[in-house]
Amino acid sequence: MIATSLSVATELFPRGIDHYLIGGLFLGLGIAVIYLGTGILAGNSTFLETTLSYVSDLPRFQRQKYVASRDWRVVFAVSIVAGAAVYEFAFTAGAFVTDVQWWRLLGGGILVGIGTRIGKGCTSGHGVSGIASLSRTSIVNVTLFVGVAVVTALVVSALGVTP
Amino acid sequence: MRSDGRGPLFTLLVVIGGLSHGFGLAYSRMARPEIVLDFLRLEDLGLLFVMGGAALVTGLAIQLGTRVLETAPLTGTRYTGREKGFDRNVVAGGIVFGVGWGLSGVCPGAGYASLGIGNYRILWAVAGMFIGAYAQGLWRVHRYSEAGERSAPGD
After folding, report:
1. Closest listed residue to residue A125, CA positions, set B84, B103, B23
2. In chain B, positions 18-57, which contact chain A (CB-CB < 8 Å)?
3. Distance from A158 to chain B by nearest Cα, in Å?
4. Does A156 sit within 8 Å of B130, measured CB to CB?
5. Which of A24, A73, B41, B134 has the fewest beta carbons closer than 10 A?
6. CB A103: neighbour CB atoms within 10 A?
7. Among A97, A118, A139, which residue terminates a domain?
8. Chain A: residue nearest B120 by CA?
9. Nearest Cα to Cα of residue A80 among B127, B110, B29
10. In this structure, are A14 and A90 located in the same domain?
11. Membrane: is it a keyword of this entry (chain A) (predicted)?
12. What angle do CA A122, B40, A130 make, to 5 degrees?
């Protein structure tokens, strides 16, 4: 019985769960700290639009709520880069460079940019803060994007595209 | 401190929060597209613990804020949960985002963090996200101006 559940666990979680869980706690703590100080649930995808407001005159990007938050969102994004660097270079052997092909990164990035902006959030906005708020909108959005992403990744893999 | 609370303390808190958020994205390996793609191919479900652990901590903060505390010290705003209105865009956006995430293994926060772990090739994805966000903005402007023309008098 124990052996069976252990082997199932090994199959579903071949890399264990420790670093996933601990990483998740730090990730959530970052959002929680900002929220408790400011009342703001910081997401990651709005950074795209607010940063475009520095360079684009489109009224869409010049809306007051974007211009008002664009400065701290840049600070947030730069701090995310720095926090990741602290972990990677102080606690692991060093830099990691992906082997995923450039056209997958670019094409996927474009769709992510469109999709998160139409859908009002991303993995942190809907996936963490929205789920934490038990928001119905976020639960629907997350269920959809995880399901569609699983199908997409399986299809891409079945077509023999690696990595 | 300015009246909106956006003073040095506000910035310091955003820096601390961002550092922890990015540290967690790297610690969890979510900043590596390969790990995300393994999850999406159902070969390693560990990412469930990333999102679950993060939502747990953020959820406790929301409970504390909305039930015990009243207003945030640095801004004076009332604590609320994250509730965005539901419409067709939420569905369409989720589907488009899902295809992009499944193709690349990159989402916005993990993309920024990936730069921090030295993954310079992630710039393809970050550039893509800006292109996508800009295209979406252009498309909305275009669509609304067309809608405006249709409802113009005499049309």
Report:
1. B84
2. 18-34, 37, 40-57
3. 10
4. no
5. B41
6. 13
7. A97
8. A97
9. B110
10. yes
11. yes
12. 25
Closest Cα in chain B, distance from residue A109 (Å): 4
Q: Which residue reads 């560990």 in tokens?
A: B46
CA distance A83 to A77: 10
CA distance A125 to chain B (A): 8
Q: Give a yes or no: residue B14 inside a domain.
A: yes
Range of the domain at A131: 99-163
Shared domain for A85 and A144, answered yes or no, is no
Q: Which B positions 87-146 lie with beta carbon below 8 A of chain A? A: 89-122, 124-138, 140-141
The domain of B114 spans 8-146
Cα separation, B115 vs B122, whole angstroms: 7
Coil, helix or strand at residue B49: helix
Final residue of a domain: which of A67, A82, A97? A97
Please give the pLDDT value at position B151.
43
State residue B149's pLDDT score.
52
Q: How confident is the model at residue B1 (pLDDT cuts 50, 70, 90)?
A: very low
- Residue B133 CA to residue A41 CA, distance in Å, equals 21
CA dist B27 and B40 (Å) reads 19
pLDDT at position B153, please? 39
Q: According to the model, what pLDDT value does residue B96 have?
A: 98
All residues of chain B having their beta carbon less than 8 Å from the beta carbon of residue A63 are none
With beta carbons under 8 A apart, name residues in chain A contacting B31.
84, 88, 96
